[in-house]
Design brief:
Shape: rod-shaped
Keywords: Coiled coil
Number of helices: 12
Radius of gyration: 70 Å
Largest sheet: 3 strands, antiparallel
InterPro entries: UV_resistance/autophagy_Atg14 (IPR018791)
Strand content: under 5%
GO molecular function: phosphatidylinositol 3-kinase regulator activity; protein-membrane adaptor activity
Protein name: ATG14L
Helix content: 55-70%
GO cellular component, one term: extrinsic component of omegasome membrane
């Protein structure tokens, strides 16, 4: 039953190395041996064959069973154990299989429960999705119905917009036609106004006359005749030497220097209220020119339908003597109104416009290609800064400059130099349009009154046409 190797291991040893406790000697020996199994001193002795066959027992065993018997008994027990184990395995195997099947069944039941829960959840979700689908279908159906209505409205709106575009285009063309027509009417009325009432032109001294009047004793005396001593200072009263601009009869200097008016007012006050009322008086000339320019500006702003930044009251220049501060402020407002009117008509020569040259800006305005048309107002920033400089009133600045330039040895010389043969420097006799200007001061005032009444009549005609 056991293999040969196992049997050889279970068998008793065949050789025992017995050692005597008494050394071999010639003396007395005692027959005492140690047992090879228990190493005890016994007098018993087992031979090799007995030991080999298993006929020996344990020296301390309580049951006297030999080794061979014990060996047989152990083999029998092992055989019985194997048989019992095999029987148990045969009996337990169905139970194990049953348990395995039960576990598998339980696992299947658990999976089935989970699947039922998942299926229920899926069914509920399907129900919700169907409800949402029905709602979306209902909403889409409503929207489809509305979309048809919106499409119809869209078509109507597109037609309306197209019609409005066409109407706007027609109105723009009509407006453009009316604006051009209005511009032509404005140009016609302004041309009539400029030709028959307010004629504005530039007048310069002839070149030959300027050459003859070089620096000489006669010219020096003539210049001295235009010097006057006012308030302890020498001042030059003739500003009509270089280029000038004439409106009807009066002229204004191209330099924009209107200080002779202030000098005339100062002289009148020093003389006890008896000013010089001659035609060549610069005070009357400048005040008349500014008054006519103010009237022309008021009529132009009315015809062009432009609201000026300052109220244009042209009676301030012909209502009497003005203080230097009021005079400068009124002139500055007049120049600002003229420049604003130039900007409103699209004058492009910004570099040629001058904040002080009154009539020159009027000429640029009348010669503008877009004059009479309604265009956006574009103002140059550089000229805006110059406006601030113009509006600042300076107390007697021109008199202070003359005090530094003139020598203290000058004396006032009478202008009546009839005995001397010198070319006349009267400004009005040098122009071809005005043959003779030797009128009295009262005649000059009457001429200005006639021009004012004519301007008022033309103004009323324009106003009635506009209404």
């Amino acid at each position: 039953m056991e293999s040969s190797g196992t049997e050889s291991e279970n068998l008793a040893p065949t050789e025992f190395l017995c050692t005597s406790s008494i050394e071999s000697s010639t003396g007395l020996t005692v027959a005492v041996e140690r047992c090879p199994l228990c190493d005890g001193t016994r007098r018993k002795y087992y031979c090799q064959s007995c030991v080999k066959q298993g006929y020996f027992i344990h020296s301390k065993a309580t049951v006297c069973q030999r080794y061979l018997e014990l060996q047989y008994k152990l083999g029998f027990i092992k055989i019985e154990r194997d048989k019992t184990l095999e029987k148990c395995q045969k009996k337990v195997e169905p139970i194990l299989q049953t348990d395995i099947r039960l576990q598998e069944i339980n696992e299947c039941h658990r999976k089935i429960d989970l699947l039922k829960i998942a299926l229920q959840t899926a069914k509920e979700k399907i129900v919700k999705d169907r409800q949402q689908l029905e709602n979306m279908r209902r909403i889409n159906a409503n929207k489809s119905v509305k979309s048809k209505t919106h499409k119809e409205k869209k078509i109507l709106i597109q037609k309306f917009i197209k019609q409005k575009y066409q109407d706007i285009s027609d109105k723009n063309e009509n407006i453009k036609f009316q604006v051009d027509k209005l511009a032509d009417i404005r140009l016609f009325h302004i041309g009539v106004l400029q030709k028959y009432i307010f004629s504005v032109e530039e007048v310069t001294l002839p070149s030959a006359l300027e050459a003859n009047m070089a620096v000489s004793t006669v010219s020096a005396i003539r210049d001295a005749s235009h010097m006057t001593y006012i308030s302890g200072k020498w001042a030059y009263t003739n500003s009509l030497e270089d280029g000038n601009y004439r409106i009807i009869v009066p002229t204004l200097p191209s330099s924009g220097d209107y200080s002779p008016y202030n000098l005339w007012v100062a002289t009148s006050r020093e003389n006890g209220g008896n000013p010089d009322n001659s035609l060549q008086n610069p005070g009357h000339t400048i005040s008349g020119g500014l008054s006519l320019t103010s009237q022309l500006l008021a009529v132009l702003s009315y015809i062009l339908d432009v609201n000026l930044p300052w109220k244009q009251n042209y009676s301030v220049f012909c209502g009497g003597e003005m203080t230097e501060k009021h005079f400068k402020n009124d002139v500055a407002r007049l120049n600002q109104n003229i420049l604003y009117l130039c900007f409103s008509q699209g004058v492009q020569e910004y570099h040629q416009l001058d904040t002080k040259n009154t009539l020159q800006n009027i000429l640029y305005l009348l010669q503008c290609p877009t004059f009479g048309r309604s265009i956006p107002v574009l103002i140059n920033e550089e000229l805006l800064h110059s406006f601030e400089e113009v509006t600042v009133t300076e107390e007697c600045k021109s008199l202070a400059n003359h005090d530094n330039d003139q020598d203290g040895e000058w004396e006032q010389v009478n202008e009546d130099l009839a005995d001397m043969e010198i070319p006349s420097r009267a400004f009005y006799s040098m122009t071809s349009d005005v043959p003779s200007m030797m009128y009295t001061g009262r005649q000059s005032e009457s001429a200005i009154g006639i021009v004012s009444s004519a301007a008022a009549s033309v103004f009323s005609i324009f106003k009635s046409n506009k209404r």
